[in-house]
Design a protein that fits this description.
By secondary structure, the chain is mostly helical. Helices cover about 55% and strands about 5% of the residues. The protein has 14 helices and five strands. The protein has helices spanning about 40-55, 55-70, 70-90, 95-105, 110-125, 130-140, 155-170, 190-205, 210-235, 260-270, 295-320, 330-355, 365-380, 395-405; strands spanning about 10, 245-250, 275-280, 285-290, 385. The strands form two sheets. Strands 2-4-3 form a three-stranded antiparallel β-sheet. The protein has a two-stranded antiparallel ribbon with strand order 1-5. Helix 9 runs antiparallel to helix 11. The longest helix has 30 residues, at about 330-355. It is globular and about 80 Å long. The two termini are about 20 Å apart. The model is unreliable at about 1-10, about 10-25, about 240-245 and about 405-434 (pLDDT under 50).
């Protein structure tokens, strides 16, 4: 059993030096002013100090002073500071879904509700929003608990300060779209009919209990996605100019087993003519590609994750029935093997579809788009590293993951034009680490 896969991953190295504090976030220096007779000013200053030094003592002080204010005054003060912090985060490249993942990972459910309410409050002041922002805000919910969660005023103030500390410390990230208030970009161009067909195939793949059928349906979805790329290139007629039509989006890649998810997303992206860069620290991958391909990449990746976890559940049940106990290393090895081998099969399907279906005059357009995507990725992420995957230590898990990914012989299920390859499902197609 291989101890490490040959699949490469890119891990974005965040530029911590870019965490410059905007002027509207800097704690006030009002040491020369006597704020003892102005409780609101004292609370505001204490909140600024709590954001700056991060100690428990400053948090308790700020929360105590906020809790002592009249409710309306405290609410106005917290809303003012919270919306300023969010506005600064948007300008540093963050989007609503990105921060929601950080809050969910690092804090507690109450913080997520408070963040959702604050995000809606902050973005309400913009006359227009990018369609992707509108969709992300809708996914957050309103943050309204309907009165089902009641906390005392001190605890509520502590919760607010903890959330604001996280927002205060997020560094700059590569923007993937305009900040709110800018002229919104056009929605990512998609062929709704094609996406509907892909979505229907993947829904069937997720619902079936037969691994062979799930594999065939997923492969057919990848075939449709590749054919859509070919049709788009055929309509373009000429090679695109540098960066023309290239866009980016972020897809959450969260623990546990984030490495396996990132590898799977990288494979789906590459099979679709895109590139994915994993930012492990902040729990997302940025996918760069032709604007028309991004929605399909996210759709297929999400479906394959559902299928992978269903296959893992079946494998664990079978091993338990055989009297063997499976651990985290089994699951990690299983999912890494699954990502490796499913990815190789998707790439093979995409290559076969291009070989069989793309006319000679279309190939230069596809090649030019690939160059444009690669160049755009390198401009966005000039410092990335590719590393070999570590941690494949359970031979049984690797074997079962490989079986789940490559058990089916798809030749009898796929159209003849997609047949080819030895069907071994071995990891020979993976790129060596650089």
């Amino acid at each position: 059993m291989p101890r490490e896969t040959g699949k490469t991953r890119q891990s974005h190295q965040g530029d911590r030096s870019s965490r410059d504090t905007p002027s509207d976030e800097r704690p006030r220096d009002d040491s020369r002013d006597d704020s003892r007779d102005d409780p609101a000013r004292a609370a505001r200053d204490a909140l600024g100090a709590a954001l700056a030094d991060g100690t428990d003592r400053s948090l308790d002080t700020a929360a105590s002073l906020l809790a002592a204010l009249p409710a309306t005054t405290a609410r106005a003060l917290l809303t003012e500071r919270g919306t300023a912090l969010l506005g600064a985060a948007w300008r540093r490249g963050w989007e609503p879904a990105d921060l929601a993942r950080l809050v969910r990972r690092d804090l507690r459910p109450g913080h997520s509700l408070r963040y959702a309410a604050l995000a809606h409050e902050e973005t309400r002041r913009y006359a227009r929003l990018d369609p992707r922002w509108t969709a992300q805000l809708a996914d957050l919910g309103t943050g309204d608990t309907g009165g089902s969660t009641r906390v005392d005023r001190f605890s509520a103030a502590v919760e607010a300060v903890e959330l604001y500390r996280l927002l205060f410390t997020v560094p700059a990230v590569e923007p993937v779209g305009p900040p709110p208030g800018s002229v919104p970009t056009a929605p990512l161009p998609t062929d709704d009919r094609e996406l509907t067909r892909v979505r229907a195939l993947l829904a069937k793949a997720e619902a079936t209990a037969y691994p062979a059928e799930a594999e065939a349906l997923s492969a057919k979805a990848q075939e449709l996605m590749t054919r859509h790329r070919i049709d788009s290139a055929r309509l373009a007629g000429v090679a695109a100019g540098p960066g023309e039509g290239v866009a980016a989006c972020r897809i959450g890649v969260e623990p546990p087993y984030g490495e396996a998810q990132a590898i799977l997303l990288d494979a789906v992206a590459r099979a679709s003519g895109c590139r994915a860069v994993w930012n492990e620290e902040h729990g997302f991958s940025t996918v760069v590609g032709d604007a028309g391909d991004l929605a399909a990449v996210e759709l297929l990746h999400t479906s394959l994750l559902v299928q992978a976890h269903a296959a893992l559940t079946r494998a664990e049940a079978e091993t338990r029935a055989a009297g063997r106990r499976r651990t985290k290393t089994f699951r990690q090895s299983f999912l890494l093997a699954y990502a490796e081998h499913v990815g190789a099969r998707l790439e093979k399907t995409a290559e076969a579809t291009v070989t069989e279906s793309a006319e000679p005059e279309v190939l230069p357009v596809l090649a030019a788009r690939d160059v444009a995507v690669t160049e755009a990725t390198e401009r966005m992420f000039p410092r990335t590293k590719a590393a070999r995957v570590r941690g494949v230590s359970d031979e049984a898990g690797w074997r079962r993951g490989t079986e789940a990914a490559s058990r089916a012989d798809l030749d009898h299920r796929l159209p003849p034009r997609l047949r080819g390859g030895d069907g071994s499902g071995t990891p020979g197609g993976a790129s060596p680490a650089r």
